């Protein structure tokens, strides 16, 4: 599945831009401040309906404008093209359309490649709270095993139902024994999610350590730390043991909604003890591990969006990075300096000489408006 073009009209500093994309590596080159990161954000927004930089989509709307809009063209393995459009308006809210019509998130997800982002703002995946890593892991396992894509949603529903019942019982509107059925429902939803997460991390861990070593950090480890057992019966027993505490707290205090995925080097947690450079390397290594797993499983390979990835890598690591990317899939790289890119990454370049203006791949500027 290939993204063949991205359009932004307008979005942040991009006024009206159309950039063609090909297979393999496309590099977007230009000085700081010309909108390279905005272009990456536009591509992510069009595919997912979200921003990786802000939780408020209205931040994408340029000053003095009433809406932001981005659109991508995606071609599948049979040559069929689909168009995805995402927009946000100050008056009408947000939209995410497939071929001009509203579609549910699951249908849209099946019509686009998975997308993974490396950007300074994304370092929160390494150094931020566990919830970000859980959500990221669940996104990977849904791409790796599509039949398991509903596990997170089903668990979330069961957790919400049990928490609602806890609130009722705590308020005196029911007996604690009434939680038995909700404990069973939560346990039945939790067990397969825990098992899937454990299998996903076990598959990713060797490739994560290998990629991190290539980036100069030996002894890398990716580990899953579940809060609950993997057996549904044991989870039910654990919930019952903690029932009194949960009633005092007003919510479920134990389960996979508190799990952690740990990234470490030589036993030291990168979240707490990693330098900025080490955290950047760990994020890259995780994205590479996921990409390799999907390639090996012959699933849809993720589109990698690597914003300012070369700035803290020495020439040798840049070469190894590009060599890894050249093995398959589609990648967009941004760089301030063309000379920072290895030769393979210069074969398809988009230059951004000024805000809102993007040249086509042939350097003619014909694709910019």
Textual characterization of the structure:
This protein has 369 residues and is of the alpha/beta class. The protein folds into 2 domains: 1-114 and 301-369, P-loop containing nucleotide triphosphate hydrolases (Rossmann fold, 3-Layer(aba) Sandwich); 125-299, RecF/RecN/SMC, N-terminal domain (Glutathione S-transferase Yfyf (Class Pi), Chain A, domain 2), CATH 1.20.1050.90. It has 11 helices and 14 strands. The protein has a 6-stranded antiparallel sheet with strand order 2-1-4-5-6-7, covered by helices on one side. Strands 8-12-13-3-14 form a 5-stranded parallel sheet, with helices on both faces. A hairpin with a 2-residue loop joins β10 (260-265) and β11 (268-269). α4 crosses α6. It is globular and about 70 Å long. The two termini are 27 Å apart. The model is unreliable at 359-369 (pLDDT under 50).
What's a quick, concise take on this entry?
This protein is α/β, with parallel strands linked by helices and 369 residues long. The protein is 40% helix and 20% strand.
CATH topology of the largest domain: Rossmann fold
The ordered string of helix (H) and strand (E) elements is: EEEHEEEEHEHHHHEHHEEHHEHEE
- Highest-level CATH class of the largest domain: Alpha Beta
Measured as a percent range, the helix fraction is 25-40%
How much of the sequence lies in strands comes to 15-25%
**Total domain count:** 2
Task: Report the radius of gyration as a whole number of Å.
Answer: 22 Å
- Per DSSP E runs of 2 or more residues, the count of β-strands stands at 14
User: What can be said about the biggest beta sheet?
Assistant: 6 strands, antiparallel
